[in-house]
Amino acid sequence: MRTVKELRLAGLFAYLAALVLGLLFSYLVHALLGGTGRLGWGSFNFVGLLEGLGFLFFFTFTLYLAKKAVRVPCTTLLTAGLLWPTPAHRLARPLPRVEGLEAYEGRGVALLVQEGRPLGVLGLADHILSLEEVPSVEGEVAVSELYPLFLRQPLVLVVRGEEVLGGISREAFFRHVGS
Question: Are 104 and 98 in contact (CB under 8 A)?
């Protein structure tokens, strides 16, 4: 699972690579057509228009390939990392803590704790699931990276070290990504 920082850097590098390759392709078209192209504020000609369209096509195509290669959200890629995906700790909601099984009322998901240490999760199955059975991610992991986990599990725990910050439900995840 990649963190928000890693996705921002990947988006920046992919965008810059697409920009440089687009400019190189435009220069190649410029050199092949004799260097007579003008595409600017003052004047333009047909050759200059071809150079500009060549840049636009190649830049867009390279961005498409970069998105497939580095698997970065579109907004992060198109803004060169200035807009980043949401970290998991922002989407996580605190889970109610239950000290013992007799205190659990059977409504919703709850975190079973003993002496302040989380032991398992109640409410996902007909028995107690240990923390190892429920997928968990660090708080700085990007929410966009959690999709494979939600194909198998209805809840992902968000942790920071040994501390459980909260949980992200499948419904909240798909509401956030717009599905």
Answer: yes
